[in-house]
Specification:
The chain has about 425 residues and is of the alpha/beta class. The chain contains 20 helices and 16 strands. About 45% of the residues lie in helices and about 15% in strands. The termini are far apart.
């Protein structure tokens, strides 16, 4: 090659390099538009709308698309369908009971590294039981929004009409049963119960605290442990509310009107639930009501109820989504949601502030939820836990409505659930 051709080739190469350098950088897979999917009643939706509105005023560069699914069941179905299709919202609310099913598929972006680098949040700001519930394979996967527990809601008017003292911390199983029996009444003398002392859904998450209170446990890595004497005795005590003492509605009565509805309508004295029903009771209940801790037996125990903000692994707006999650879990963000009454804030500073403990709004004794935190137990993080829970609840209902002895139903639950533990070997 002549010297002139070499010079020409060198100039041509230099020209190509210069032109390439001047080309615009191809866009990366990022976005400043964040989709955010939630569930809840109108009061909760209004709070999330306010949350989004306030966030946008502080971060006008980020657009938030709020997707609202009213019912929890419909929300869970939509969530599963969206993740299966690879099109989930960027930010979603997930209960810790369902975390493992998503985490094992790597469907969620771990938020631990984001939390570690955050200037606004610190892990020590949160109640430990809530934060630990979203810990999976060495990572904090999601950031908890709340830390509720199972408590006793009670109708103060019915207690006063019967001349009975309100439930107090430290009451026993015997106290609880005697109270429910005294408040179960045939008010019109027709031989049918018009007022029940207690309302409860016969589900595994309702009986679980009483198993712990009786010195039992729910499961090991090898399977359910519902066949132990401690577990069987606790389940039998729970089942006897219906089959022996009739302090709760039977199957036909429950199908005609749920225990939750009966309590809201003032015809049930006590009702077991988490913080979830507070917004509804504030709006619908025409009687005075409050909350008390669960009764206790050989131990004091209650069940953790917690939802968290989670980030979809396929999100193309991870940085913007984290900015939103960070704000939502800040003191300002959690205060906005706490005002609906729905949540027990996972941030200590908010939970221990008037935003949550204001005695002028019901329940007057929200402190009960905070007092129960040291006694909170959580359900196992097992990928198939949703199915295990459904199986066990179905078997529990057979016993609860007198279709099978407790021992038979629990043995069946252990057997039917066993394959879901084997899958994790």
């Amino acid at each position: 090659m002549s010297i002139f051709r070499k010079i020409y080739a060198w100039h041509l190469t230099l020209l190509v390099l210069l032109l390439t350098a001047c080309q615009p950088t191809p866009p990366t897979a990022t976005s400043d538009k964040v989709s955010f999917m939630v569930f809840g009643d109108p009061a909760e939706l209004k709070a999330y709308q306010t949350l989004v509105k306030v966030f946008i005023t502080q971060h006008p560069e980020i657009e938030i698309e709020l997707i609202h699914i009213p019912g929890q069941s419909d929300y869970r179905q939509r969530l599963a369908a969206d993740f299966a299709a690879g099109t989930p919202a960027d930010v979603v609310l997930i209960n810790y009971r369902r975390l493992a099913g998503f985490a094992i598929k790597h469907a969620l972006e771990p938020l631990g590294p984001y939390l570690d680098q955050s200037a606004a949040l610190n892990a020590t700001d949160f109640y430990t039981p809530a934060l630990d519930a979203f810990y999976w394979q060495g990572q904090h996967v999601c950031i908890p929004q709340n830390i509720s527990s199972l408590v006793v809601y009670y109708n103060q008017d019915l207690f006063e009409a019967a001349g009975m003292a309100y439930p107090q911390t430290g009451w026993t199983w015997d106290d609880f049963l005697a109270t429910a029996q005294a408040l179960t009444k045939d008010t019109d003398g027709d031989g049918a119960t018009d007022q029940y002392g207690l309302g409860v859904e016969p589900e595994f998450i309702r009986v679980a605290p009483f198993i712990w209170q009786n010195g039992g446990d729910l499961a090991t890595p090898l399977g359910l442990t519902l066949g132990t004497p401690e577990a069987l005795a606790a389940v039998q005590w729970f089942v006897n509310w219906q089959v022996t003492h009739h302090i709760v509605p039977g199957r036909a009565e429950e199908e005609s009107e749920s225990s939750e509805s009966r309590f809201q309508n003032g015809r049930t004295a006590m009702y077991l639930n988490s913080r979830r029903i507070v917004p509804t009771l504030r709006e619908a209940a025409t009687f005075e009501w409050d909350v008390a801790p669960l009764p206790q037996n050989v131990a004091r125990a209650t069940l953790l109820h917690a939802d968290a903000y989670c980030l979809a692994a396929v999100s193309k707006a991870k940085d913007a989504a984290w900015t939103f999650i960070e704000f939502a879990n800040s003191a300002d963000g959690q205060t906005l949601i706490a005002k609906t009454g729905r949540t027990v804030p996972s941030l200590k500073a908010v939970a221990e502030s008037p935003a949550f403990l204001d005695p002028t709004v019901k329940p007057a004794h929200s402190q009960v939820f905070l007092d129960e935190i040291p006694y909170i137990f959580r359900l196992p993080l097992v990928p198939g836990w949703v199915d295990i829970e459904e199986i066990t609840s179905a078997e529990l209902q057979r016993a609860f409505y007198g279709d099978a002895p407790v021992a038979e139903a629990m043995v069946s639950a252990v057997t039917r659930a066993a394959p879901y533990f084997t899958e994790n070997d």
